[in-house]
């Protein structure tokens, strides 16, 4: 699978934002070219997606009130309120007032 077929969802998490900030600083200092920064981000997208798929085996269940949902461009988005998460193995529960879940197909449309 080509690197361009991975979603960039994880760039918006704390690790992805920190990486982007560091790359921006390196570009600003002229330590790296913008093209190299894009290659690093593309590699980040691939490695995070593959690692989560291969290494994470935990499961959780959640219960809450569905507030809104939408399906656009092959992406589901759910906004859930008063959510309770339960991990397998009785590891306790986590409660949140509001959770946004974004779900994308495992394969991009350009993979077809």
Helix and strand arrangement:
Elements: H1 14-28, H2 34-55, E1 60-72, E2 75-87, E3 93-104
Antiparallel strand pairs: 1-2, 2-3
Helix pairs in contact: 1-2
Question: Which key terms come to mind for this protein?
Answer:
112 residues; alpha+beta; 2 helices; elongated
Question: What is the compact description of this entry?
Answer:
This protein has 112 residues and is an alpha+beta fold. It is 33% helix and 34% strand.
Verbal overview:
- The protein has 112 residues and is α+β, with helices and mostly antiparallel strands.
- The model has no long low-confidence stretch (mean pLDDT 87).
- The radius of gyration is 17 Å and the shape is elongated.
- The chain has helices at residues 14-28, 34-55; strands spanning 60-72, 75-87, 93-104.
- The chain has a three-stranded antiparallel sheet, with no helix packed on it.
- It has two helices and three strands.
- It is found in: Nucleus.
- One of its GO terms (biological process) is transcription initiation at RNA polymerase II promoter.
- Belongs to the TFIIA subunit 2 family.
- InterPro entries: TFIIA_a-hlx, TFIIA_b-brl, TFIIA_gsu, TFIIA_gsu_C, TFIIA_gsu_N.
